[in-house]
Design goal:
Blueprint (H helix, E strand, L loop, with lengths): L5 E4 L6 E2 L1 H14 L7 H5 L6 H8 L7 H15 L5 E2 L3 H10 L3 E5 L4 H11 L7 E3 L12 H10 L6 E5 L2 H10 L2 E5 L6 H6 L4 E3 L11
Parallel strand pairs: 1-4, 1-6, 4-5, 6-7, 7-8
Antiparallel strand pairs: 2-3
Helix pairs in contact: 1-4, 3-4
Length: 215
């Protein structure tokens, strides 16, 4: 079927499994401050709402500036973000099919901008995205819908032509707040129970299924 709408993708757990590199980077900083490492599944509980939220919930270092700790994490993650993270199988063909059939691909993520761009370049798909919005080029992050509105403005698309695609409650909440369709990625790393409780309009179990859905 024709894909002429605007498809806004989240990053972590939506186009790539990134949990191991995030946990490795976080634990590198924890170790530097004498803290025991956390299991990846514990770290993933706090992924989806941005690096600050992750650090606030996993890296409390007495006497240290939270901003300094956040910057330490961002530096560590920038170094490790492509150690094991790879795009989900079928990402290339999915993005290409959307574009070939007249659709537009954008990204709205709470992931730091420099890391997002580095990874998209590493995956070889940065050129597919019409626009990319991260905390550094927005006023507010998800679940605020600002990034969705910016993506629609850049692509000259309406709410009825737009779908927000992600694996966390923050993605669905942002989409609902923007008044656009929402698609839950059941294969991602987000809390599935909370993801479904958020009431997504659509659900997929493989990224390639997105091109078979009517938005």
């Amino acid at each position: 079927m024709p894909q002429k709408g605007l498809y806004i993708f989240d990053f972590d757990g939506t186009i790539s499994y990134t949990g191991d590199d995030i946990a490795l980077s976080l634990n590198e900083v924890r170790k530097a401050h004498g803290l025991v490492p956390l299991e990846t599944k514990e770290v993933l509980r706090f992924v989806g709402y941005g690096a600050k939220y992750l650090i606030d919930n996993t890296l409390n270092v007495p006497g240290a500036s939270p901003e300094d700790i956040l910057n330490e994490y961002k530096k560590a993650y920038y170094s490790h973000c492509t150690d094991t993270s790879r795009p989900y199988e079928g990402l290339d063909e999915t993005l290409d099919r959307i574009i070939e059939e007249g659709g537009t691909v954008s990204m709205f993520t709470n992931k730091p901008l420099n890391i997002t761009l580095k990874m998209l370049d590493f995956f070889g798909v940065r050129d597919r995205f019409h626009s990319i919005f991260c905390p550094e080029n927005l006023v507010k992050r998800k679940p605020d819908p600002e990034g969705i509105f910016r993506c629609m403005e850049e692509a000259n698309r309406s709410k009825r032509d737009t779908v927000m695609i992600g694996d966390s409650k923050a993605d669905i909440d942002a989409g609902r707040a923007a008044g656009v369709k929402t698609c839950a990625c059941l294969y991602g790393v987000g809390d599935r129970e909370k993801l479904l409780e958020a009431g997504p309009d659509l659900r997929i179990s493989d990224i390639r299924e997105i091109t078979d859905l009517k938005i």
